[in-house]
Specification:
The chain has 176 residues and is of the alpha/beta class. It has a single domain, classed as Dihydrofolate Reductase, subunit A. Helices cover 19% and strands 32% of the residues. The structure holds NADP nicotinamide-adenine-dinucleotide phosphate.
Length: 176
């Protein structure tokens, strides 16, 4: 199964200047809890902003550079390989950004774990919020950190049914 996980400000921002525009400990903790033990996909730019593998998770980086190598990291050059491996698998691939990766993988995600940060931030990278129109909220948890409300919402893709291969038909599963 493919699942998206992202933190998004109230004006849709996810990043600024190559990094996160905020630091919310509770969101980092949530990310760790949800993704622990699973495969986590980053775009090459996001991975370089983090700079190292994450404990207890299989880290996969998407890049066009076929010579790219990093210790302890799986490198993938084709979106299709990930979709073929995970779309109908019991193993979960958490798609963890950045913007280019969210745009490509949200439509094929069965679930989306979105932390809605209820404050506006200045940024240069955005989450494709219109893609969430195809999802329904399944659970919501709210927390406060430094006076800012964090709303942790787990969404389920309305197009996902008991036959995940149905994603592969039509444009959803097709790569550029
Ligand atoms: N708030 C959040 O939840 C969150 C999460 C993650 C990241 N972010 C933020 O998002 C920003 C980074 O996003 P971004 O869109 O600039 O970069 P990105 O998505 O992290 O990485 C882009 C790179 O991924 C590779 N890539 C993307 N699509 C590909 C494809 N179809 N095939 C092969 N390789 C592909 C390319 O690498 P090459 O150039 O090497 O070919 C591309 O330059 C940062 O500010 C970061 O902090 C926020």
């Amino acid at each position: 199964m493919i699942a998206t996980i992202a933190a998004v400000s109230s004006n849709g921002v996810i990043g600024n200047g190559g990094g996160l525009p905020w630091h919310f400990f509770k969101d980092l903790k949530y990310f760790k809890e949800v993704t622990m033990g699973h495969a986590v996909l980053f775009g090459r730019k996001t991975f370089e902003s983090i700079g190292k593998p994450l404990n207890g998770r299989k880290i996969i980086i998407l890049t066009n550079d076929s010579n790219y190598r990093r210790k302890g990291i799986i490198i993938v050059n084709k979106v299709e390989i990930l979709i073929d491996n995970y779309l109908s698998s019991k193993d979960i691939l958490f798609v963890a950004g950045g913007e280019s990766i969210f745009r490509r993988f949200l439509p094929v995600s069965a679930e989306a774990y979105i932390t809605h940060i209820e404050k506006e931030f200045t940024g240069d990278r955005y989450f494709p919020l219109d893609g969430l129109l195809n999802f329904s909220p399944a659970s919501v948890k709210e927390e406060l950190e430094n006076g800012v409300k964090l709303r942790f919402v787990k969404y389920i893709n309305n197009n996902y049914d008991s036959d995940p291969l149905s994603f592969s038909s039509g444009s959803l599963g097709k790569s550029k």
